[in-house]
Amino acid sequence: MTKPTLSCVLLVVLAALAVTARAARPVGLKHVEASTLTLCGQLMPGNPNPYHRVDTVRFKGFTRAENLQVRESAGLAVAFKTDSRVINVRTVYGQYQSPVNTTGIAARGYDLYVRRDGTWRYAGSGCKSDQRLLLGEDLELVANMDGSMHECLLYLPLFAEVDSVQIAVEASARIEPLPRPFRHRIGVWGSSFTHGTGVSRAGMTYVAQLSRLTGLEMLSLGCSGHSKLQPYFARVLAAAQVDAFLFDCFSNPSPGEIRERLLPFIETVRQALPGIPLVFQRTIRREGRNFNLKADSLEAAKIAVADSMMALACRRYSDVYYITPSATPPDHLSSVDGVHPDDYGYTLWARSLRGQLLPILKKYGIE
């Protein structure tokens, strides 16, 4: 075969592939703002930016780092139904972070689930490269679906502030808000563990997994490195409308901070929200303690103070509880960096919470 003939054949093949690609991924898409659908996980609905977890104009006292973290969309998810064969997302980002111990997909990207046989199944995830993140391009999450109506749950970025999230579907397809797929309102305040550090995708935090396991709506306000029982965070939580609180607040503060701040923190929340369960979690074991004697000593001292103060709190206050989750498998191989669990570790955490948390909530009619 001569070179010109070979070139012609290649051109025909490429043209055929292009036609096939266009058929599989329709060009005509419409974009719908996610906040007009069902936005789940909002601890404080009604913020001027619906993707901010706290209104930082209304609430003051945050450090610069905390101010960004409470504006990040960690823990938020959009529930909708569509018969589109393709689902894309387009984002207008504000500030964002790039933690080295968390994937870019989890930090700045998206995680999509579709309900099948009553269970939320993974459907697609992704993130634009740093070079293309701010260009406002569509990110394809799933394509070549069957065109029937599907119930979808899309988790937003963990470590990014977003000003607009638009879900793109075929122009001829339907897209509608899904009736809220979770029950009740359980506030969750905590550290990098609650924020989701170490996960591969936003839907793999222990908070997100616990929602899917129990059907209860978990409202996450995780702030990596900054869950230290601060009075101004207590005032934020006291203003939330919730049925219960779950706290992960003993991994960041020093023993002295725990002694000084825990009881006033409880008082502030109880005064505003009397009669709801306040469930505190003992901090999980960090694998970095295994051979580092200094780290082991510091962690042991912190946990001992937390145990002592929580024993006092449980005696002093009704509706205050202390439980012990676990993110550690028998082989101790679920750590990303000696501090944070990986996806499997967070799965173990969520499962261990389910068995301890649900009986407490049931006493308050939360099922």
Please give a handful of descriptors for the protein shown.
367 residues, 6-stranded antiparallel beta sheet, hydrolase activity, acting on ester bonds, Rossmann fold, 2 domains, globular, 9 helices, single chain, SGNH_hydro_sf, 5-stranded parallel beta sheet, alpha/beta, Jelly Rolls, disordered N terminus
Based on Cα principal axes, name the global outline. Answer: globular
Tell me, what is the CATH class of the largest domain? Alpha Beta
Overall pLDDT score: 93
The CATH architecture category of the largest domain equals: 3-Layer(aba) Sandwich
Distance between the termini: 73 Å
Instruction: Tell me the strand percentage band.
Output: 25-35%
Task: Please provide a written account of the structure.
The chain is 32% helix and 25% strand. The protein has 367 residues and is an alpha/beta fold. It folds into 2 domains: 29-177, Galactose-binding domain-like (Jelly Rolls, Sandwich); 183-362, SGNH hydrolase (Rossmann fold). The strands form 3 sheets. Strands 2, 3, 5, 6, 8 and 10 form a 6-stranded antiparallel β-sheet that branches. A 5-stranded parallel β-sheet has the order 12-11-13-14-15. A 4-stranded antiparallel β-sheet has the order 1-9-4-7, with no helix packed on it. Strand 13, helix 7 and strand 14 form a beta-alpha-beta unit. The relative contact order is 0.13. The model is unreliable at 1-26 (pLDDT under 50).
